[in-house]
Amino acid sequence: MLAALTVIVSGGMTFSACAADKNSPVAAVNVFIGTGGDGHTFPGATRPFGMVQLSPDTQVRHFKQSYPWAAGYRYEDDSILGFSHTHFSGTGHSDLGDILVMPYSGETKWEPGYPERAYSGYRSRFSHQQEKAEPGYYSVKLLDHAIDAELTASDRVGLHRYRYAKGEEARMMVDLRSSIYDYKTKNLWSSMRVRSNTLVTGMRETRGWAPGRQLYFAMQFSTPFQSRDIQNREDGVEYRGFAGPGSNGKDKVKIEGKAIVASFDFGMPTDQTVMVKVAISAVSEEGAIANLQEMPSWDFAVERQKASDAWHQALSAVQIEAKPEMRTMAYTALYHSMMGPSLFMDIDGQYRGPDNQVHQANGYRFHSTFSLWDTYRALHPLLSLIQPAQRNTDFVKSLVASQQHSPDGILPVWQFHGLETWCMIGYHAVPVIADLYMKGINDFDADAALNAMVKSAEYGPYGGLQHYMKYGYVPTDLEPEAASKTVEYAFDDWTIARMAEKMGKADIAKKFYARAQNYRNVFDVRTGFIRARKANGEFRVPFDPAVSNFGSDYTEGSAWQYSWYMPHDNAGLIAMLGGDAAAIAKIDQVFDAKVDEKIYAHMEDISGLIGHYAHGNEPSHHVAYLYNYFGAPWKTQARLQQIVDSQYQAKADGLSGNDDLGQMSAWLAFTSFGFYPVAPGSNEYIIGRPFLDKTVLNLPNGKRFTIRAENLSKANMYVGSVRLNGQALHRNFITHEQITAGGELVFVMQSKPNKEWGSKLDARPYTQTAYQ
């Protein structure tokens, strides 16, 4: 095995790379970025798009305090209660944390205890100085138990290695209560079955974010346990299982309840080491046992190297040359962009769908965890460039299969572990599918996909769609978040029209191109803002563009943030605002406003403020690029410098908001390359400015697209000129076809803005309404 490399980065964090080359992509990643502040990422072991996310959990108090621990771990904490096998990366909602394992020595304590009271439970203190991580690997010293813990993972199996102190008994706690939520609130049922002294299986069913979620596991030990004690500790009642295998012929082989906790005693292994494999399945215990076959070896070094190699292959889709901190941020952004959607099927292709029934995937790999309100914007367009076509079409096939299994007959809204949460708004599986189809990534049943898209757009009971179809907008007196829903539906409708048009479905295209103009019905020309209207046609009054509340007219935002949301028709916006100059002045107000942050303090997701611009939440993500549509790309270049400098850093709290399954990271990845997909489905990327000296995209089709930045420096933030394959590029956008053809894009950077480049009408990107 190659020697490990330990690198110290900003904030005192350490992470090790299982690679000899310190310039490798894996060595550049800092998995701790986003684990502090509001980033909500986790530092544990997983594979690209893996089903298992094996990571430490640091907090358990009460479900009402769960938001900061949405990923189970916070860098600010100093104690660990164990290592669980499922985690979200960067969400704004807490769930998962399944099958918690905690090694310990000495007295058995059945509760995790509290972080402010040392030794109060089985949790242990730890130090970041004795914590290391890299893609696919995590290790930490559990100080109160004197145990060295190491974790790695395959797609469906988590592998633990625990080294106990000499002379101490090796014991292990397995807790099926939630490590993130209060089990009394979340657990519906759980069970544990002892099949031998090296194999334990079980399940738990929860009613968290996705009601009725079932997860099964198979746990295999490298060393036979000598005794075990399994309890159902529901409401403080200790229903004891068995003291030892076969002690009196009356041992129970299975125990059930809402609060199953088990202790396993391995005595004193000769090498002081116990390893455990945990495979998960949504289908059955037998499915989990079969999934153990994915990792036949007990060689931890080999499995760790396999995980590292998987990440090296995935990250090598992009070769980056840049200053160390920027290179770390860019590669970490790419790493976080490959957490989801995650694989969610057994090795035999079985999975559990939104009807909570078991289905069979044939010819594709079923994925789940679709944070679509976030990820359709930049994450999925990024994956179309850096992931094989098969992976992307697997996403589409998974979405369409989910629609076919859905009791409501619509595409996923926010789905995880196969189940619908109904979180957020829009029908944003639609632009994910349409964007891939428009790019020629179409090895799926296009007719079935379009049918699913249309059904989702016409499902009246969802989100006020019956009113949207009747009035041409969502009335605020009939449906909450009406203004946001109207404009988001309009964009989704445009992507349906685009795909239908390319498929030759003229009638569908005509209908949805017309619906795509519905954003105009909630735009108030007098004030220049998107506003909610009542069923009688009147705008809601009084009106304050900075007001944002849950259940109000806007979704996690205000009129300042949502009034720019017609990414498919910015020429229409310009006309309604009164021309380029007025549009530029209005968007300048967004960034330059002197805003008391208290006005947004009640909204957890409105963070990363620059004026009214909120980079910590998705509705703002395209806004800086809109200057290109207004004939002032040099202003986009300056704003991007402002955003990157203030919203991203190579440290634990280096993300200004929830990473949201990679959307925050995908924004940085695209922006660091030098362009961004403002309107997925247009096949255009809007040129900003690069933050990397050189980027090479090793494209899925085998070609290479190189981006170089000449004279790049902090002072030289402006684009002087651009060349594509040696020819001057005067347009302020580049097409998907130009990228996938291979070639070279060269930026010449300078310290002063070039106000002529990309400013003419014929240099601007696509919009549905023609420029006047």
In summary, what is this structure?
With 772 residues, this protein is α+β, with helices and mostly antiparallel strands. The protein has 19 helices and 41 strands.
Corresponding CATH architecture of the largest domain = Distorted Sandwich
Number of helices: 19
- Indicate the structural class: alpha+beta
Q: Which value, in Å, is the CA radius of gyration?
A: 26 Å
Could you tell me how far the N terminus lies from the C terminus, measured between alpha carbons in angstroms? 64 Å
Shape: globular
Low-confidence stretches: 1-20, 237-251
Arithmetic mean pLDDT? 92
Features:
alpha+beta; Beta-galactosidase, Chain A, domain 5; Glutathione S-transferase Yfyf (Class Pi), Chain A, domain 2; 3 domains; nine-stranded antiparallel beta sheet; 41 strands; disordered N terminus; carbohydrate binding; signal
Task: Kindly describe this structure.
With 772 residues, the chain is an alpha+beta fold. The chain has three domains: 5-312, Beta-galactosidase, Chain A, domain 5 (Distorted Sandwich), CATH 2.70.98.10; 324-345 and 604-772, GH92 mannosidase domain (GH92 mannosidase fold, 2-Layer Sandwich), CATH 3.30.2080.10; 355-462, alpha-1,2-mannosidase (Glutathione S-transferase Yfyf (Class Pi), Chain A, domain 2). It contains 19 helices and 41 strands. Strand 3 (45-46) and strand 4 form a beta hairpin. The radius of gyration is 26 Å and the shape is globular. The relative contact order is 0.10. The model is unreliable at 1-20 and 237-251 (pLDDT under 50).
